């Protein structure tokens, strides 16, 4: 009893003597994106100082280290992580939290506690905490004391799949940028990175059994200049410069390990049967004509697709065997989009298979092709995900559908009780222009997807019943890079649209409020700047463009 009184007295005395205990915080101190499920504003602030220590159980060592680095950088002080000392920042697991990625965050003047059902939940709590920290000191604004406003937050995501894609084939991006991209995703509580690794214009992943995929398939002789829709016009121009790049398997391992520490699953995409000109250039026997092609040097869809031969299946199974050894993801993306059937129409081999298998047409042949790949991947404990064209000719039994040509494919698949990821062009194509006025915009593929348009998106179509809506795993935005040549431009195309998408996939649709989001977004852009991120500033000025 005596002890309890003494402790209580000590707390009161320290609260009274601590100038941070009773600070009244402003609402503006709590601008968080994506918006948490619930947030209480409290009195007091937690000061980061030389006595601050982070403690976490062994299972949360990664999160402890991550937070230690983050806080040390921001405060300019060493904020250590210790498994032994009882610190005043505590990371904990709690089985009773319902959502696998859910967390609670409590900040008072003398204690921060982040509790997650899993380490992922704790990691998201850390991301929220990072947005509560006032911006780091800059040369012109030297902060001597960094303090965090008191709060009590309970939060969990709406969707289990929160994805961003990056095409590294049309233009190649180095490992250092891929890691930065992963950090941008993590900051927004996104949990999936769809890595588009193979294309007509370049094969970007080392496959040991087929070295020509990279020695030949990763390099195009030159690249079309200007907009791709000029390619069949007489005045088409090419730049005359070889372009290439690929990731070694060591690079891939490094990126996968990095993503894991940020709770991001990487889904690799190996395109088939179309978008495979680079592979067919490296190994012409995989094509339908045996012709020696060249790696694609213009954009758009190419007629060359894999032959449905046993040799191709052997090749693809070998490639996928190496791919799944590198990527722990349950889902493997097998493309399936934009595969013109002209070459199969003209191929004796393809027509013989159609007859032999009793297939109706080339669409059913594509379905046969994809089912075989699915069977192989299922036998290795993996599932396929493919663009919505995989519905044509019959959907493979366990496939997840990525609906990009609007939501129609996704709706159809959900009604068939297949999992779906929504990525309709109108809301989720971040290679589109961000504003209607294109005078000051870098060249883009076309279309128009404003931040507000992204923010307005609801991935759950009204056409589906509540039961059917359960098959919608979430949404993803795609970043096709025909016209995006540098990391800075990727950032420009992605920010702030990704920030809007993060709220679409994390927060409740019912509480969405565009004006409130804009206020928080403007606040977050200061953080982009502090982190050295390039973003489309003017896109914020255009408030109600559709
Ligand atoms: C796609 O945009 N071709 C999936």
CATH homologous superfamily title of the largest domain: Glycosidases
Unreliable stretches, pLDDT < 50, 5 or more residues?
A: none
> What fold name stands as the CATH topology of the largest domain?
TIM Barrel
**CATH architecture classification of the largest domain:** Alpha-Beta Barrel
Mean pLDDT: 94
- How many structural units, i.e. domains? 2
Major sheet summary line: 8 strands, parallel, barrel
Ions, cofactors and other bound molecules: acetamide
Number of strands: 19
State the share of residues found in helices, binned by percent: 25-40%
Task: From the alpha carbons, calculate the radius of gyration and give it in angstroms.
Answer: 26 Å
Count of helical regions: 18
Keywords: Glycosidase, Hydrolase, Signal
Catalytic activity: Hydrolysis of terminal non-reducing N-acetyl-D-hexosamine residues in N-acetyl-beta-D-hexosaminides
Family: Belongs to the glycosyl hydrolase 20 family.
GO molecular function: beta-N-acetylhexosaminidase activity
């Amino acid at each position: 009893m005596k002890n309890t009184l003494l402790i209580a007295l000590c707390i009161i005395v320290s609260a009274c003597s601590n100038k941070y205990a009773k600070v009244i915080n402003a609402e503006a101190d709590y601008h968080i994106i994506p918006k948490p499920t619930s947030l209480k504003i409290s009195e007091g602030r937690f000061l980061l100082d030389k006595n601050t220590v982070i403690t976490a159980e062994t299972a949360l060592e990664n999160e402890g280290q991550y937070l230690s680095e983050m806080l040390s950088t921001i405060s300019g002080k060493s904020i250590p992580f210790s498994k032994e000392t009882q610190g005043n920042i505590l990371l904990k697991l709690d089985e009773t939290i319902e959502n696998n990625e859910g967390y609670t965050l409590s900040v008072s003047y003398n204690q921060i506690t982040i509790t997650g059902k899993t380490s992922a939940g704790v990691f998201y709590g850390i991301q929220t905490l990072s947005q509560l920290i006032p911006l780091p000191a800059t040369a012109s604004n030297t902060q001597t004391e960094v303090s965090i406003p008191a709060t009590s937050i309970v939060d969990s995501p709406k969707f289990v799949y929160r994805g961003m894609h990056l095409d590294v084939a049309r233009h190649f991006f180095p490992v250092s940028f891929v890691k930065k991209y992963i950090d941008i995703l993590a900051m927004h509580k996104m949990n999936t990175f769809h890595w588009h690794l193979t294309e007509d214009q370049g094969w970007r992943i080392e496959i040991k059994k087929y070295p020509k995929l990279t020695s030949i398939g990763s390099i195009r002789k030159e690249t079309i200049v200007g907009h791709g829709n000029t390619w069949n016009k007489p005045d088409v121009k090419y730049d005359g410069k070889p372009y290439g790049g690929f990731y070694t398997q060591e690079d891939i391992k490094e990126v996968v390990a990095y993503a894991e520490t940020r709770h991001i699953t990487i889904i690799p995409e190996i395109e088939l049967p179309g978008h495979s000109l680079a592979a067919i250039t490296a190994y012409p026997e995989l094509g339908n004509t045996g012709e020696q092609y060249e790696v694609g040097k213009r954009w758009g869809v190419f007629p060359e697709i894999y032959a449905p031969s046993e040799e191709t299946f052997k090749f693809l199974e070998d490639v996928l065997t190496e791919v799944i050894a590198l990527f722990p993801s349950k889902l493997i993306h097998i493309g399936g989009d934009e595969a013109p059937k002209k070459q199969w129409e003209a191929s004796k081999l393809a027509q013989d298979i159609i007859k032999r298998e009793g297939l109706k047409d080339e669409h059913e042949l594509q379905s046969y092709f994809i089912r075989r790949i699915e069977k192989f991947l299922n036998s290795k404990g993996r599932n396929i995900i493919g663009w919505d064209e995989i519905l044509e000719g019959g959907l493979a039994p366990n496939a997840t559908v990525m609906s990009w040509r609007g939501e129609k494919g996704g709706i159809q698949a959900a009604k068939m009780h297949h999992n779906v990821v929504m990525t309709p062009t109108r809301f989720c194509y971040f290679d589109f222009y961000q504003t209607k006025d294109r005078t000051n915009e870098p060249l883009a593929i076309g279309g128009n997807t404003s931040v507000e348009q992204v923010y307005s998106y609801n991935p759950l179509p009204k056409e589906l019943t509540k039961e059917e809506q359960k098959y919608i795993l979430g949404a993803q935005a795609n970043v096709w890079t025909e016209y995006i040549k540098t990391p800075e431009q990727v950032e420009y195309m992605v920010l702030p649209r990704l920030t809007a998408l993060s709220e679409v996939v994390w927060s409740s649709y019912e509480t969405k409020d565009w004006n409130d989001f804009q206020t928080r977004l403007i606040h977050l852009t200061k953080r982009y700047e502090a982190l050295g991120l390039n973003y489309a500033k003017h896109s914020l000025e255009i408030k109600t463009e559709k």
